[in-house]
Design a protein that fits this description.
With 190 residues, this protein is an all-alpha fold. It is built from seven helices and two strands.
């Protein structure tokens, strides 16, 4: 369904001069497919959050998880359904973490471990997103590290404890996706 929509949008965008076989069409179609999938997942999470009465927590999860993922990357699933299920599992784990008492030592431990993993592993390069340029890798790493520090500080200073927990746990879970199974020294997708 998403592939059909992305092909129609690409055909409409590029016009009749481009066929399904040309590289430009394939590249644009893939990009549109990714955007549609991201919007679909966002809507599903927001609707679930609203239905469960935890919309602020869901938004906090999205800020923590997706915000860090934008620069750090991480493990990807092979299918859209697998990705949606993995995101739902991460969301649920972040929400379950709100029921656990997290004292200052545990906050520090979560922050430190997230910071270390992100500083060491980000950005992750995958077959669909190979990041070979050193400058881009360094820029993404710096942005990811700054994001972890900034969001943690902002959460602790300005947000209620429940939202702070969700943000910190979501970033920790995202950091864990940077430590994937490895095959021959390079990351591969699940």
């Amino acid at each position: 369904m998403i592939q059909i929509m992305s092909k129609k949008i690409t055909s409409w965008s590029l016009g009749k001069d481009y066929t399904y076989d040309c590289d430009e069409f394939q590249i644009m179609c893939y990009g549109i497919e990714i955007i549609i999938e991201a919007i679909y997942k966002l809507i599903v999470l927001l609707v679930l959050g609203r239905m469960c009465g935890i919309l602020p927590e869901t938004i906090a999860f999205l800020i923590g998880f997706s915000g860090l993922r934008a620069n750090a990357g991480g493990l990807h699933m092979k299918t859209s359904l697998g990705c949606m299920l993995a995101v739902l599992m991460c969301w649920l784990l972040s929400l379950l973490g709100t029921y656990v008492h997290i004292g200052i030592p545990l906050y520090i431990g979560l922050f430190a471990s997230t910071f270390i993993v992100v500083a060491h592993r980000a950005p992750v390069s995958t077959s669909n997103n190979p990041i070979k340029d050193y400058r881009i890798r360094k820029q993404k790493k710096v942005k990811a590290v700054i994001y972890v520090v900034a969001v943690t500080l902002i959460a602790h200073i300005f947000m209620p404890e429940v939202l702070t927990k969700v943000l910190i746990i979501a970033m920790t879970i995202e950091a864990l996706t940077l430590i994937p199974k490895e095959k021959g020294g390079e990351m591969y997708e699940a």
